[in-house]
Amino acid sequence: MADVHSIFKSQYRQYVASLKETSFDTQKNEYLCQDTSQKVYDFDKIVKDKFPKRQPSSYDALLLNKLDNKIYCIEFKNQKYSDINRTVIAKKLQNGKDVLNKIFGEHNISASEYKFIYCVVYKNTASKWRQGIEKNEIQFELAEYQGRYFDEIYTNDVQFFTKEYKKHFHKDLTC
Hints:
Structural class: alpha/beta
Number of helices: 6
Shape: globular
């Protein structure tokens, strides 16, 4: 069986980007995350090149953690929580994972050796108690996909994302 890290390093190296680059909002012409130190794969670009005529929805970034075999699929939404379209987020989750599964199949990578984590990172706007959001509760009606498409799903603001990043990677993230 092939290893996802070596395959991506050799076959997808032209898609390496920073979290800052993958968090760019073209409509508002701004970045949700300012960090340039963490390298990820620009999954939107991979999908665009893989499917030039009809692109499926996809998440923004793919972060591979070799130490614990976790694959973070990150969708940045430079919007406040209440403006995020649940249907669009679910479609990105499903289609993105289908494309990733296809890539795994093409390169003979065993998906069962990895833990897949979907992260929806949105703009800080109001305190969670004002939004009615419980801590660590999966938002946007994505809970049904946990266990089926992804091992874990996180839907939180960018501040939560930076705290969790520090916990898992033991490095600060500037978002």
